[in-house]
Specification:
- With about 240 residues, the chain is of the alpha+beta class.
- The chain has seven helices and six strands, in the order H-E-E-H-E-E-H-H-H-H-H-E-E.
- The protein has helices spanning about 5-10, 30-35, 85-90, 100-110, 125-135, 140-145, 160-170; strands spanning about 15, 25-30, 55-60, 65, 175-180, 190-200.
- A four-stranded antiparallel β-sheet has the order 3-2-6-5. Strands 1-4 form a two-stranded parallel sheet.
- A hairpin with a 5-residue loop joins strand 5 and strand 6 (about 190-200).
- The chain starts with a helix and ends in a 35-residue tail after the last strand.
Length: about 240
């Protein structure tokens, strides 16, 4: 899921000068919208992975600043510390990038997980918290309940998406990442490939909260978006 680097710069462009943060971005990714006609080599995910997957749990200062790499270049991920989580992680937190899942998890932990040890002090705390949030905040169910289903030709509005976030998670503001591709008819299609539900910085109870409004946004909220099916990756 390193594929999103360019678009992420649009939403979170500056590493904070210090390691303070105010909330978490809990980011999920839709691989068809990330990989379809992209310039990076996506790997084929197992057939049973046909849902929104975790990208990361990121401590964030505001909509444009975040702490990063708080343990320095010596950071490593000891997977024996999360051995009981690995089966679920391979299913719910895979990478669609060719680098492999463990490399991806190492990147996420070293860049983001090392900066929130005041709330999630250990490796196991960090990954288990993200998995728990993923179970509690089911993006697939939220979109399905709102009638937002994968389709190659049915567009949706951001009003519909915002309503889905409000109805399922109780938030008025979520954060979206978009990219654009040319459809078979030659027209540009806007694809939402990531959604962040922001999470409180609360050691006793991580729960949804409104995301701060970003000054720059990779999505054109006034234009429709598409949620492509996984079948576009096998054509």
């Amino acid at each position: 899921m390193f594929s999103v680097c360019l678009a992420l710069l649009l939403a979170q462009s500056l590493v904070a000068a210090d390691n303070t943060y105010n909330y978490f971005d809990f980011v999920r990714q839709w691989s068809p919208n990330s990989c379809y006609k992209s310039g990076h080599p996506c790997k084929t995910l197992p057939a049973e992975i046909n849902y929104w997957t975790i990208h990361g749990l990121w401590p964030s200062k505001d909509a444009s600043h975040y702490p990063a790499d708080c343990a320095g270049s010596s950071c490593q991920l000891n997977t024996t510390a999360i051995a009981d989580l690995l089966d679920e992680m391979h299913l719910k937190w895979p990478t669609d990038y060719s680098g492999g899942d463990t490399k991806f998890w190492t990147h996420e932990y070293c860049k983001h997980g090392t900066c929130c040890t005041d709330v999630l002090p250990g490796i196991h705390d960090y990954f288990s918290a993200a998995l728990k949030l993923n179970r509690q905040l089911d993006v697939d169910m939220a979109l399905q309940s709102a009638g937002i289903l994968p389709s190659v030709d049915k567009p949706y509005t951001f009003d519909q998406l915002n309503s889905a976030m409000k109805e399922s998670f109780g938030v008025d503001e979520a954060t979206y990442w978009c990219r654009y591709v040319k459809a078979s008819n030659g027209e540009s299609q806007q694809l939402v490939f990531q959604i962040s539900v922001c999470i409180t910085k609360d050691p006793s109870s991580l729960k949804p909260r409104d995301c701060p409004v970003a000054a720059g946004n990779s999505c054109n909220m006034g234009q429709p978006f598409f949620l492509l099916p996984f079948s576009v990756l096998t054509v």
